[in-house]
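hiii, so i know i said id send this last week but things got crazy w the move. better late than never?? heres the sequnce for the chain we talked about at the cafe, plus the structure i predicted for it. fair warning i was half asleep when i ran it
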Amino acid sequence: MTYVWPTLQARDARALIRFLVDAFGFVENVVHGEGDRVDHAQLDWPLGGGIMLGSGSGSSTWQLPPGTFGAYVVTDDVDKLHERAAAAGAEILKAPADTDYGSRDFTARDPEGNLWSFGTYPGEPRK
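okay and structure toks below
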């Protein structure tokens, strides 16, 4: 069960959804809205969790401007995901590399300008 849902806004939410599914491997769970407008979408991450997103309207103090989101996403095969993302046109900002804390990571930017870091570091166990 997911209790924390990162959220982001997009100028072209339908295009961003397609990109996140095709390039990064998110799974489209639900998309509500009509025409070009997305009122609410949920994309699931195969290893758990996910994100929520919608069309940015600027009408709420809750909404961050499109392109200002950033997330770290755990994956079990960084190099394979990097190849997929690059082939799908993701802007690769940092190629896969090993870190001094035991992770293998890469960083990319989506077409809206959001930053995504994918790595093998799953975080520390809960205390």
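btw The mean pLDDT is 94. thought thatd interest u
miss u guys!!
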